[in-house]
Every structure is written in structure tokens, then in C-alpha cells.
Specification:
The chain has 213 residues and is an alpha/beta fold. Helix content is 29%, strand content 27%. It is built from six helices and twelve strands. Strands 1, 2, 3, 4, 5, 6, 7, 8, 11 and 12 form a ten-stranded mixed β-sheet that branches. Strands 9-10 form a two-stranded antiparallel sheet. The termini are far apart.
Length: 213
């Protein structure tokens, strides 16, 4: 365990402050942040879990090694999301069903892995929202090193411990923890603008004359 470095405790956003973000599309959350903190499309939803909302429990690992992930779960709190910089390695799965069981026990609601995972069907059965770059049956090493609670690069976005992760079938958006209230205030305005635009589109469609074929 000496090869895993742990950052002192970090702040987390209270669920009551971010709850609204569970009820809106991740795309609207990304729009509220000028689309600057949207993870790239290689980070895909692989389970049939619910929409993702939680605080980032960040982990930096060596490619193909998940020792630090095991150690991170000792630091987990209910509502956390594992956010792992696996350096895009797709040859070794960093989490599977056994880690999934520990996630459920500790109240971790999902994972975002810049790397690979396995046991996807079992993870779905645990109602975990798991995003990753790939799936492989090959298991990881457990030698370290690693770091917990440090800023990590995942899906082309920097994530700090305690940031809020919002995800749905479209992908994942990172909300910096100091901007949560700003985004909560903005998403309803964005939703209203989209609703108005949709109404205009539908009105134009119904007002068009039928075309004879």
C-alpha cells in the first residue's frame, strides 16, 4: 500500500445542491458549461444503470493496474463516483464484478474509467452506472503505484476530487464543484429555450401543406 498516495480529505457537494442535475439531459448540463467539460465520445455507458450523478472520487493508476482503486474504496463515501485515469489502456480491465460489489457496499453509485472494464452484465445487475473506453475479459495487475484524490485527466477533461459527474446515455459531463449552483440555475433556462424552439419546429411541420406523391 506504500505505493499508493492519498490526498488529504477533500470537499464534496451535498446531494441536495446537485439533485436537479439528475433530472435534466447531460447535454443541457454541458451546454451550461459552454461544452468545455464534456468527456469525449470514447467514454461510453456500458451498463443499464440509472442516470449518473455523484461526487468524483479520483484515482490515478498505472496502465492495467488497479491497486489504487481498491485502496480508493476505503476512502469512499455514499454518492461518490469512481473516476479513474487508466491512461486509455484497453488491454486490462480495471474494475469488474468484485469491485462492483464493494462499490455497492460503500455507496459508490458508478464509475468513469479511461480504460477498460469487465463483467458488464453483472455490473448492470448491481444498478451501477459504469462508463469506460472498452470491455475486455483480461484482468488487471495489483502492484501499484497510484494516487487517490488528485486531479486526473479522463475522457479529455480534467476532474478534481469532489467535482460533480453527470451522465446519461449520451455520455459524461464534469461540473466543477464551485460551479454547481451556477449550472443548476442555468439548466432550466436552457431547457425552456429548447422547449420554445421545439414548439416552433413542430408548428412549422404541422402548418406545411401535404405533398402529393
Amino acid at each position: 500500500m506504500d505505493s499508493v498516495r492519498i490526498t488529504p480529505a477533500w470537499e464534496r457537494v451535498a446531494e441536495a445542491k446537485s439533485r436537479r442535475l439528475r433530472e435534466v439531459p447531460a447535454a443541457n448540463v454541458g451546454d451550461a458549461l459552454q461544452r468545455m467539460t464534456v468527456m469525449d465520445g470514447g467514454i461510453r455507458l456500458l451498463t443499464e444503470g440509472p442516470a449518473l450523478l455523484g461526487n468524483a472520487l479520483t484515482v490515478d493508476v498505472r496502465s492495467g493496474d488497479n491497486l489504487a482503486i481498491h485502496r480508493a474504496l476505503d476512502e469512499a463515501r455514499p454518492g461518490d463516483v469512481l473516476v479513474v485515469n487508466g491512461h486509455g489502456d484497453m488491454t486490462r480491465a480495471l474494475i469488474g464484478d468484485l469491485i462492483g460489489e464493494i462499490m455497492v457496499n460503500t455507496g459508490v453509485v458508478g464509475a468513469v474509467i479511461d480504460g477498460a472494464v469487465r463483467d458488464v452484465q453483472a455490473l448492470s445487475g448491481m444498478s451501477l452506472a459504469v462508463y469506460a473506453r472498452a470491455v475486455t475479459p483480461a484482468g488487471p495487475f495489483k502492484e501499484g503505484p497510484g494516487a487517490i484524490g488528485v486531479p486526473v485527466a479522463v475522457g479529455g477533461v480534467v476532474v478534481a476530487a469532489g467535482d460533480v459527474l453527470v451522465g446519461d446515455a449520451d455520455g459524461v459531463v464534469v461540473v466543477p464543484r464551485h460551479r454547481v449552483q451556477e449550472v443548476v440555475d442555468a439548466v432550466d433556462r436552457i431547457g425552456e429555450k429548447e422547449k420554445e424552439l421545439r414548439q416552433r419546429i413542430l408548428s412549422a411541420r404541422t402548418s406545411r401543406p401535404a405533398v402529393n406523391r
